[in-house]
Amino acid sequence: MKNRTFFWFILPSLITMVLFIALPIVSVALQSLHIEHEAVMVEVENCGPFGCKQELQVDVEETAKLKKERPLGQFNGLGTYTNRNHLAVAEIGEAWQSSNGFADFISKALNLPFYRALAFTLTYTFVVTPLVLIFGFMIALGVNTLPKRIKGPTIFISLLPMIVTPLIGALILFWMIDANGVIGSTLQWIFDDPDLSLKASPTLTWIMLMVYGVWHSAPFAFIVFYAGLQTVPSDTMEAAMIDGASRWERTRYVVLPHLMPLTVFISLIQLMDNFRVLEPIISFSAQASATSLSWIIYNDLVGTESQFFGSAGATSVLTILGVAILLIPVLIRTWRDFNQKVV
Amino acid sequence: MSDIVHRRSPVLNMVIWGLVLVWIVAAGFPFLWTLWGSFKVQGDFFSKADWTNAITGARTQIETGAAFTGKGYYGAWVTQEFWRAVLNTMLIVVSVVIISLTLGTLGGYALARSGKKYAFYLLMLALVFRAMPHITLVSGYLLPFFEWNLWGHLPTTIIVMVAINQPFTLWMLHSFFLNIPKDLDESAMVDGCTRFQAFRHVIVPVMWPGVVTTGLFSFLLAYNDFTVTATLLSQANQTMVPKIASFLGTTQTEGNVMFAVAAVVSATAPLFVLILFFQRQIVSGLTAGAVKG
Amino acid sequence: MFLKTITAAGAFALLGSTAMAGCGITAGNVSILSNDFPAIQAVTAAASACAGDGVTVETNLTKDHKDIMVAALTANPAQYSSVIVSNSTLVTLMNDGLVRPIDDLVAKHGAALNKSQLITVNGKVMAVAFMANAQHLFTRTDVLAEAGVEGVPATYEDVLAAAEKVRAAGLMEYPVALNTKAGWNLAEEFVNMYMGTGADFFKAGTAEASVNNKNGVATLEMLKSLVAYSNPDYLTYDSNATQAEWEAGNLAMATMWGTRGGAVLDDEGSTAEVVAGTLLSAAPTWGNGARPASTLWWDGIGISTNISDEDAEATFIAMMNGITTEVVKANNDAAVWLVEGYTPSPASAGVSGTAAGGAAPYPMVPFMGALHTALGAEITDFLQGTESAQQALADVEAAYTAAAKEQGFLK
B292 lies in a domain? Predict the structure, then answer.
């Protein structure tokens, strides 16, 4: 394709992405290199319905002067990235020095918010992603063999975990898995343990979050694979059958290669989305046992009196880097495909 | 492929259908439970005392005199004017899907056919864009949007959602376009079509399975989004999900929670029709014989 | 509750049409951003009645108000002319000078206000409070009586003893609940409990945290002894969950927000037995502290800086119309109102008792938010038994210090 044609085809899409994603990313990255001006404090008397008290307050006028001079705040370099709430370079170094043995070091590192979150995030990503692919593929194969009449409703039901707004979906599930709820009670009955509570133990919470993750994302893989299955060339299939290929061989040598670009696509999207896992942690109130990188950002920005933009920016940039590293193998594969297919 | 089905051994059929059945139960049960529970009072639906109350409706009988009540639906649709949110959602969803797909098919097609290195780098860049957590993006928009008086309006939200979803749309459509043989449009160009004409007359007719699937995801994103709509829309322009969240409020007022449950069930109904339609689209794309390897 | 809200809203609609002249605004734009709960819904509904004839009133009631308020008020002109603020959010807005002093407006239009409603900072009125809130003790007197406990527990030591008796009597395995959901709620419980020791969170005159001391350790130990009597899921209990547990009759003692009193004592969602047995009382004291272990909160009206003086005046008048005696009388049990005309009821006994007992207000210092966030994230390790109290508190201080440096409060 000519460069000019390419440019005009891609332009509209490019404009929206530059305006609403690229520019904000640049501004967030810039912000993460700065911290706020040193606040000028004064002690004043605060009075209200419950009496008076001497308390420190920000001197707005003095601070405003500082802000006017340098609107971004004080330049801090990578200071925010290396502080205790992020990469915690100093703390990790100290833990390495003072710990007796590797296990001790790990437990010290996992006491730091970033590494604790990273541990869950990575586990979640690497457990959920392959399971979603496998389940999605199996369901797609299964649904594809159903008689036409019941296909529609089956697809609809299969998509429900993805469709029902997570806000309420999770609220309902959260109640269901309660020790008094229907799933919680059933599990207690199955395992014959009246004290079993999915919400109380960190291990069970992790498992629960991952099961939810698979349940929630499998429909995505399913529907993409299903659409892909519709385009499997039927003559190739028939040729393979005439050659005496077994069902397994046909799936392995015809269907799978045909679905490969879609598999790569689903893996990419799932790796990314799972790496940014947030919603189940919030909905299941699981933050005591499991936190993720996105949760750290959420905790900095949402529902608090004071929003930490610099800190959130730093974690966001680290998340992007993490995703980039995670995707390298998939990208190399795409790169090879890209060179083979098109040129 | 229907002839293949016939030749499958009964045992394999049983296994496959058994698997599908297990999945259907896992996927459908929570929703079915919600549907049933939406006709109860809160004391039953979120019963802490005994979960079987949700089935029998013990408190519903005490509080309303019958085992089922339409109070949740009445409250949501009549008292709280949920239909306004439905209208807003429809506006947003339709616009987002149409704009996303238009931009996405053009871009995705170009990326699939370019063959130049920069196309690959552009794809990679789009991926990096996608890695940005939405909350950070949305918090970043707030100040400029307030300054320029763009906050709270439907068009702003639409364009933001289109942009946020663009990397995904591009990737997905690009993957689908890779599956459409190059010879198709290139032979058209040999016959004297321009690139755009080839795209318009040869590719567009055969791209529907991919486009419909991608469209479905754009649709679901716009339909279910909470982060963007809750932060960027004023209360007058609220869509369904933030509206449902507002039924819950900070303090879950007795009764209002059931508005939310009823609203969720109502919100799912139109999707049923949509997906039936969508399913036929995929199959019709296939039977048109468009995609031949 | 549901019906009550509806009839109240209807009453306002009527009031609005007759009281239009009473509003006395000729022109201006009023827009209100606030949290979303019944008492505030009543206030904003009444304020909205001033709309018409060149006056527009818009409201945005959302639980996400904290996330947009700074950006919305930084813009010039500000998106909202008024924000319903509380102890903690007022400070955030004042840090950036986003709310204006309203002495002149109070002098002109605030004749009906009590002196105690005025929130003054450095002598200037920055907000007008209209309701109070606090977490305090809810007790099931019938259950305690059955377990042989006399009277209502006045200290947390009493609570523990009573809980042990209830458990020993086989009445309930987990008789106690606090709002201990990890994050904001749990941190608030820590703050409450720590307040009961009478100690300060910061070294005097600085932004340096000082919670890693014997008071902090004792606070954590007390919390841990209490959650030993709580359902094992306690780290997921927010106030909605606690209220549901209470109404289901699964609890004998709980600390909940005062605003929950009305909903717990009404006839919806719970059995007559639970309602009849429920008693609201002041937050307990503990240790040798004299102060009830709770923090007092108020909600009030702040007026934006970045709007025209006309809009500010119109907004103030409309908001005054939202907190009239009539509104308060129509919604008496929705909150503990600070407004003239409020009749104390059993639903407000807990908050009044806590205030009368001398509980302290939630600290109005600019860096309290950062400490609160750090507490919410770091003390769960101790409660789950994976860390010592000293280590947990050291983590809190370290997390706070890093955050406070980013915000320019510490060097």
Answer: no
Residue C148 CA, chain-centre distance (Å), reads 33
- Helices (H), ranges, chain A: 3-17, 23-32, 60-69, 79-82, 89-98, 102-109, 113-144, 148-163, 166-176, 182-191, 202-230, 234-242, 247-250, 256-275, 279-283, 293-301, 309-342
Task: Give the residue from C80, C110, C109, C106 showing the smallest Cα distance to C93.
Answer: C80
User: What digits encode the pLDDT tens for the residues C271-295?
Assistant: 889 999 999 999 999 998 889 999 9
pLDDT number for residue B92: 95
Contact between chains at A237 and B107 (C-beta distance less than 8 A): no
User: Can the peptide bond before residue A153 be classed as cis, meaning omega within 30 degrees of 0?
Assistant: no
Last residue of a domain, one of C329, C348, C367: C348
pLDDT at position C178 = 95
Tokens of A168: 């309420």
> Are B253 and C248 within 8 A, CB to CB?
no
Contacting subunits of C (3+ beta carbon pairs below 8 A): A, B
* Chain B neighbors of C72, CB-CB under 8 A: 142, 146, 151
Distance CA B242, CA B231 (A): 9
What is the value of ipTM here, to two decimals? 0.88
Interface B:C, Cβ pairs < 8 A: 93
The residue type found at A66 is L
Give me B56's structure tokens: 């029998």
What is the CATH classification number for the domain harbouring C374?
Answer: 3.40.190.10
pLDDT, tens digit, for every residue of C55-106?
Answer: 899 999 988 898 899 999 999 899 999 999 999 899 999 988 999 999 999 9
Q: What pTM, to 2 d.p., does this model score? A: 0.90
Domain contains C411:
no
B293 is a domain residue: no
Output the six-digit token pair for B130.
């996608």
Show the CA angle centred on residue C60, arms to residues C54 and C63, nearest 5°: 165
pLDDT at C350 over 90: yes
Same domain? For B13 and B117 the reply is no
**Are C245 and B143 in contact (CB < 8 Å)?**
no
Residue ranges and CATH numbers for the domains of chain A are: 40-75 (no CATH), 76-111 (no CATH), 113-342 (1.10.3720.10)
Cα atoms in the 13 Å half-sphere on the side-chain side of B134: 20
